Amino acid sequence: MKKSNRRKFIATAAASIGAVTATSSMPLFKNAKDKQLAHHVFFWLKNPDSVEDRDKLVEGVKTLSKIETVKEIHVGIVAKTEKRDVVDQSWGVSELMFFNDLAGQATYQTHPVHLDFIKNYGHLWSKVIVYDAMEV
Fold this sequence. Notes:
Distance between the termini: 49 Å
Strand order of the largest sheet: 2-3-1-4
Number of strands: 4
Strand content: 15-25%
């Protein structure tokens, strides 16, 4: 390889590395206003062996998607995954939903659809645990 070609190669490579470095120094985190809130709820059924009760609760949880501040919802039942000490399979139904911000989650809490859900389906569960997490 000639010296001039080597110099061009080194100059081009250095420029490319500089561009990558500049790009990688951009902030890794979103602005606080762009961070989502994840709302994960686990329900323990009063009758854990009742598929009918489980399916009725799933039906009820899915109605919560009608609330305008709910951006995404995932409704689930216990997966038949490998049993390990760190996996809790004692619950029956879960919901994972995302809100754009704390205000959206606050609206959800007092929304008539949410209050109707509690009134109409609350008799199906014996215990509820909620995990709310703000995106970082």
